[in-house]
Amino acid sequence: MSEPASQEGSKPVQENGKEEKERKQEATEVKVPTESSQSVPSSSALDNSSNVPETATDEIKSQEIHLEEQTKASTDLIKDSDTNVSKNFVVRKPAKVIFNLDPDVLNSKLEQPWKKNFYKRVEARAQAMQQKIINKDNLKKELEKKAEKKFPRNNLAKEWFNTENMTLKTRAYLLDKLLPTLVPGVEKMLMQVEKKKLWAEADITTKFDPINHLGEYLMRNNPYYIKDSGMSGYQRVMRDVTEELKIHVPNTIGNRVSKMKESIKQKREERECISEVKIKVANIRKQALQEQFSEWILDPKGMIPLVVIQNVLHEFFQNPDFQLEACCKQLDIADSMGPRLNKMEFTEYISSYIADFKSETFEKLLKHLCHCADEFREIIKTDMRRQMFAELFLCCDRGKVGFLGRQRTLALLETFYDQSSKMLRSLLRNPRQWPFIEFEEIDLPEFWGDMDNQKHIYEDFDKVLLEINALLSEKHASKTQSKLLETPEDQHKHDEYTESTPPEQQRGTTAEQEPNRISTKEQEQDKESTGKKELYREIVTKQTHTGSTPEQGSSRELITEQRRHSDSVTEQGHSDSVTEQGPPQRVSSSKQGVHMESTAEQGRHRESIAAQGPHRGSISEQESHRESVTEQEPHKGSRAEQEPSGEIIPEKQQDIDSTLQSGRGSIFRESRKSRESASFEHTEILPQEKRTQEQIYEEELFVSPELQEEVPISRRKYHLSETTKKEVQKDPSCEKSQKIEGKSWSGELLTCNWNMDYIKCEEEEQANLLYSSSRFTDLHAIIRNIQSYKEVKGGSAFNGVSFNLLQFVQLLETFVGEDAPLSVSETLTSFFKRGYVETKEEKISGLEQIRHNASRVRRELLLEALFQKWDSDGSGFLDLNEVDELLYTYKEGMEKESMKKAKLHIQFPKPHPGQEVRMSSKQFQKYIQLVVSELRGNEDHVLESVVEFLMNSLERSPTENLRNCARRKWLYRIQHAAETSGVSLEPVYTETFKALTQDAESHGNKKISAHISLLEENRLLPDRGNVLLRNVASTLDDAPFVLNRVLYRDMKGISFTVVDEGKPIHVPQVQHHGNVFFWNNSINKSDQNGSFLALPLQDAYMRVFGVMAVDTLRDPQKINIFVPHEIRFYQGVANVFSTAYHYVHSRKHILHVVITGIAWLCEITSDITTITTYFIEPGPKQDSDYVLRNMMVTRHLGLTKIHRNPPIIFRKTCIFRDFLFKCTDTSEVILASVCGENHIVIPLRERTGKALGVLDFNIGRNKMLLYREFKDLQKMIKVVQAACYEILGEISGEIKKNYILEIENVGEVQRAGILFFRIMLQELQESLQLLTSLDFVSLLLYDYHPSVEPTYLPDTKSQEVEANTKLVHDILLAVILFIHPELELSSDFGNWDKCKMYVNRHFVTNICAFDPTARHVEVNLKLIGEYIRDHSRIEVWKFGNSVIEYLYHWAHICLTLMELSKKTSSAIAPPLPSKTDSYVYAKMPKGSLPGKC
Length: 1493
Description:
This protein has 1493 residues and is α+β, with helices and mostly antiparallel strands. It has 51 helices and 22 strands. The strands form six sheets. Strands 15, 16, 17, 18, 19, 20, 21 and 22 form an eight-stranded antiparallel β-sheet that branches. A six-stranded antiparallel β-sheet has the order 11-10-9-14-13-12, sandwiched between helices.
């Protein structure tokens, strides 16, 4: 036993030596030595078996002693290491002197060194203790393993294990307390008996007593007093059995612990099971995403742009049905098309967002991805078309002037439209109609009174819809009749009857016999809408076939035969063209030649067409393949005009010669006449080329399999049943082609980089040229600030004369439409290249215009920069005398007389009381340009010379330049707050007070208070003055005393003096001024020290509308007088605030006009689903693109939801809805189809032609509105746009306010509420003035009396004549009662012969002079309403008389205005939300507006 002891005793010495070496090292970590287990010598294993337990016990004891020594050594090492750690970190450093620091921050910084030292010491000690415990446990485990090798386990002890409840506690107690000591004692006693050989010789007397021996052993090995000397193999097994028994003893620690372990184990297993399921689900989802990746069209490298997938997820997360707004916030959408995703990256990226999605949500996401994949294919196709048109623009712009003539472009489009086949014209849009021509180019009689349905943007649109509705009603009636035939006899009789009827009358009678019959109400509605759509195509096809020649028929039959061979390819290409309509879903299958239709009526209808010839049968087959069940709105009503419109998908062409229009009347103005009279001899298509063009269309539309991709995605259904989806995934032939009409995608989208690649900003180019010029070095910094502070960057202005690249491309895209293949665009491109030829004079004129524009922009930049340098205090004006004094020194006064002549051509503002004439920036620029025009030489060179002279003559110190730069930034923030406020004044007030306080602290070392008060009409107490000043905003300290307080004229104060005189008043010391009103009465008179400055707030007409007051009463300094440069800056703040205030109010008024117009439109139309209004705002960053703010949304019922905090829409999030930014970029009307819904997007333009907002009309699944609704939409847009022009012109001062009606004098808010109706009233009055007496004579001939019924007219004709007569009489009587209200009380009222005498030569004059809002007008509104409201808008439209149309609208508008004028002012106040509302609803009263039916 000495050998192991000597080995173990020598190791601590060696370890102490190692520890001394480690102490010399400057390591921060504590290293605890670990000792390797010692092997027992082999000689000890050869000892007697009786000595084995003793030897093992001694060995275990020695190792435990070594473990205690090791623990002591580690403890000493911890102490030493702690000492080292403390010595390393306790270092004295130089003290820091910190100024202007918060005491809390200072205390936290002072506490950091000792805390850091303490935490490190505690951490080191904890790590050492943890390592000690780990080492001890590891050593025990090694000793146990060694003991197990020495003492093999004796499994006889397992017999003690018995879980019987009766003896469980006793057995567990004995095994735990007694038997571990008793069994070894008995074993020892038996060994002594065996040793003394007492078994054989039982009678031999001996002193050995087994009982005494066992008792001695038990006393010597009492476990409470004697340390455990080791266990045998039997005891080890017994210990394990004891532990297992303790687990089964109830209400014990072991039992509770075992239950806890069991529950933990179960939960762990559940978690593992859930994680496995999640992993499986994630793998399945990844596999589904990988399969879905193949549906996307990829770039040449097999990748897809990241921004596209981000837009897909963004749209899905924004769906309110899923409530995934939190996921939407995590999306950081890329700004470019650069980052791409391959198949694996695509799967991983989407998987990172959908880990917590439910199965239903994931399925909807897959459907959304499939839908977006198809939409992306259409986007790429549209982008290819736009690239084609952009190259065409560059080719036609041979002079590189950057624009093309608008009239020449429209004339070419008209020629191309006329020379196209009827089939192609059904796809194209009529370029002679709006939106290709502007409202100003349409005569008033045509605009308001033309009801010719043939002038729709789509040819024969209403006519085809009427035929569809008639056929659908016939089908519905036959289906109802078939349901009523219940008995076999009735059914047999009905079959005999149908055999004798024509095939056209048999449609829909056998719908019950179809195998896939649908019984639910929703599916019946789906059948009606689908049948109507199918009928639409068939009717267009029939109309196209009418003009076919035999030669064309034979050639088309050949094409049909070719098409029959390609049916399989067509069927496979469209196996997924299914749409979703409610819960029931159906899938069209045509793999075995059986064409299953969504409704029985469609099948019967195609059979009847197929019976007419094989050619038409093939067409119907193609129709079944081209589109399966298509989603449409349910049948809305019985009237034809109210039915939702279908889509035009023509199937055949007609000869070009037979489709040329013979001649149409002149319906446009002089610009249109000049365009129509222009000759284009070089643009005529030769007969050979006509035939080639026609063959190309036929091949694209009937033969080519790629055309199956041309069916618009908005007309498809994207939901597939699970079985069909699996079949499509398994069948490689069903995978979508990576080409679009045989063309591969290059991987780039022109639309995303449109502004950077094709749009040139003239201001930026001229600014860069000025930067490179050394003549204007002092103005470079100011010019940079002007460019950075530009309001909205991007967007083109519409001028009506020319198109830039964006506008030209958009016009051609609108003309071609989305349904036409790319071959049509190629043909149009080649036609334009041959046809667009400019003369030499036009090229020279274009170049001169470019030079003139560049010169104008350069002049404006130079003069604006010079004005800002001169106005160093930011006051916003210059003194004319000061400008003249410096100008007259130019060339040493030699040009003084010429400069004086310029004053004769300009009207300066009125001089102030001190004979000071103040010029604004625009007036200064105009004055300098007039001065330059009077000087000799080139105007550009002379202007630059004058600017250089004035720039060098102005001496400004560096302090003034820095002060000017800071003030310009603060002033810009006020205007920027107005532009980005979402028609709210709160940000404007906030930035205004910030500018005042920051300037006072930085440049005046003062503490100021300020408030703004606005003028109001004093209605409650008129004895105290006609107007009052109400405090609407103030700084935070004065808010409790100033806010919402009112100042009357009879109160003390100087504010009304400022209002009357229109100039600022400065009171240096208020304590010595007796006419200053103090809002805070709690201040003692002795403390009322400080300066006071009152500034007038003036509009563009220099009318005062409020006062801005600034004081220093809270400044602790004794001398706190405002110096001149501060007063001038405060004047500049008041000027900028006035501009921002009117900017916000102009947007509020426009919003109010739009609400009124939308309410009027929604009451007379039914096919408009939603109307969304957007305003354009600058981007959140200084150099970023502009954004759109969603101001309000109007639903189908006319209820408008106005947002309190309108959401912002960025361009990068609108790849799939880029039509909004297309509209704002080009300021043109956009016709787009997205997500199966059609949109008419119309810009609201500023007076410069740029878009300030967008109106998005969603017409649902309808291809286009009916012509009646389309015309009403035009009327609404024209009036709203005219109101915008008037509001913006009045606020900017360009035009004077024109008060037409008496109600307009009430106030600006009330005026905005009735402006829409007033402008419409003026339009109708102008239209009535263009009528002649013969137009009214035809109405007076309607002298039909209901009591006398003629016998020579049929019943239907008689009813129609009676209805028309009643319509004419009622409308004329209503108008007469407006003008002559006394007629109601006279005896002539019931006699039509006497009433019609009021329709005389003064009738129109009286109508035009009538003011429905005048106070003296008193009419019976109830009686007039009964006459008017009995007749619907559709009834008036069907009557087709322009005079009745005018008078009908005029009467409704007068009735509406009179009802509004009788209500309180709040009835026509802008319905904007309050501070506490997130949104508010607004709706116009229904009683005053015309109805739909």
